[in-house]
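Batch manifest, entry 17 of 40.
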Amino acid sequence: MFPSSTYIERRKRLKANVGSGIILLMGNEESPMNCADNTYLFRQDSSFLYYFGLDFPSIAAIIDIDEDKEMIFGNEPTISDIIWLGIQESLEEKARKVGIQQTGPLDKLATILADATGQHRKIHFLPQYRAENIIKLEKLLSIPNAEIANHVSVELIKAVAAQRSIKSAEEVAEIEVAMDICYEMHTTAMKVSRPGMYEREVAGLIEGLALSMGGRISFPVIFSIHGETLHNHYHGNLMNAGDIAINDSGGETAMHYAGDITRTIPIGGKFSSRQRDIYNIVLKSQETAIQAVKPGVEFRDIHILASEVLAAGLKELGLMKGDPAEAVRAGAHALFFQCGLGHMMGLDVHDMEDIGEDYVGYTDTIKRNPQFGICSLRMGKALEPNHVMTVEPGLYFIPELINRWKAENKLAEFINYDKVEKYKDFGGVRLEDDILVTEQGFRLLGKPIPKSIEDVEALASL
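Output type: structure tokens
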């Protein structure tokens, strides 16, 4: 964890930004795979980690703004816990490491919240994504579980989003640790991917690398020769010479800061002429988008810029026609680029997605565009110094989508469907890097991972 002063200062700022009432933050529980003693790998709630830093289950915390009190609640280790898990520090000892002097058992939390509710005090809590925490809140606050989402605190959501969006120097340093894991994962995948291997052999190897480096994967590995499926977690395909595989994977540090990188790998060591054409369009789009990053620029404008580069490249290949800017405004490019250009990253790979993308990536004046494709853009607002962003354009040839648009003759003034038909077996190409927005522009995070065709082929041919 960071020094206690980090968490003390974070909570101080949160209190100032919320103003009054009681802030309730729920830690996570362990989640059983098939029985209570056989659990999934524990992952603490990211906002709880941000403000309280304690990475173990079955705890909760309050910040009483009006009375200037902070408390962590949990039950002390039992002799059974010690037998099975070893000697444990007391809750009080753990709490002091993050600057909390008051602790109590979980049933005391219920009493405090009941008293506050009886006094009609405002209790702020965030949206919940774990069913067990929804059930807990139902009992703690006497709110039916179906109504919990209607009682979340918008003031708290906005305060947390504003605070967590700006990464401190110590956070950036921790993200760089995650980037070291990413480097090993991606360069190893390039070196070992060969015809005759199954995708799972590579996916398993790079997940193991993350574990061996003291971390874990920051999201389930996407490694697939069917890159046209954007989040393809199936790893059962046999890879053949001439295939290309998208490797979208990242490491998470022991402190749970994330990395998120994508590269596209030629199976057999060489891209075909057609693959090179598509790859270079995506590479140009990404490099153009990255160079446009600087404070004050709205990320939705960078998304549009990247999309126009994609459309122009597809026009040169004869797959699209007309003016690229007009095609993008009409949404024609979304036949090939169905998602957003990138997202914030930090303690979550999609940072703060759990508290609501529209609060994190948009504002009261910058709203999400409902048009297909750009509607999936997670971040549209203006960039600020110390935002950490991914930039990940791609081109994806989804046969079912192509068939549907062609049958409707949709946006035919911009799409050459006869030529597109010949690419239905292509798959997809995606390239992704992580960047820090600086006062003047940007800085790429992590050691450079091969990305040019020549560099990727050189490593993939070893």
